[in-house]
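Work Package 4 report. The design task specified in the project plan requires that, given a folded chain encoded as structure tokens, an amino acid be chosen for each position. We show below one input record used in the internal validation round.
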């Protein structure tokens, strides 16, 4: 979970696994899926090293959730930013930031979206919309 930072949803991961992996996840999952605290722009330090070593367009990812983070990325020489979990929570996040530069993503970094990769990646905190 180092690349994702935030909470580790062990119960949710176990629930989508088949046996015997499900039981293994419940018994020893906490030993190999460790929790790392979330902080905005959590991959910036490592990305700076890559930015300094190459002369090509780069994307900063990891904890970009607001305009301030985007501005920091651009000031650091990154041409683009990537947003994943934040967009799962708020698909219109970029428009919300454009309308209100102080808007910060509603994503709480619970990582419960991670186990949904097996059934349709989504934020589990967002109510599904009904098709008409």
């Amino acid at each position: 979970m180092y690349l994702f930072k935030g909470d580790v949803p062990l119960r949710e991961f176990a629930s989508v696994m088949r046996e015997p992996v499900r039981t293994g996840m419940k018994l020893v999952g906490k030993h190999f899926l460790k929790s790392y605290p979330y902080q905005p722009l959590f991959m910036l330090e490592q990305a700076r090293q890559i930015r300094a070593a190459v002369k090509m367009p780069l994307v900063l990812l990891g904890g970009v959730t607001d305009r301030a983070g985007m501005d920091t990325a651009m000031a650091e020489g990154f041409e683009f930013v990537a947003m994943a979990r934040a967009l799962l929570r708020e698909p219109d996040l970029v428009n919300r930031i454009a309308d209100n530069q102080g808007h910060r993503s509603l994503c709480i970094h619970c990582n419960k979206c991670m186990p949904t990769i097996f059934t349709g990646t989504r934020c589990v905190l967002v109510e599904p919309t009904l098709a008409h």
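The chain has a mean pLDDT of 92. Validation will be extended to a larger panel in the next phase.
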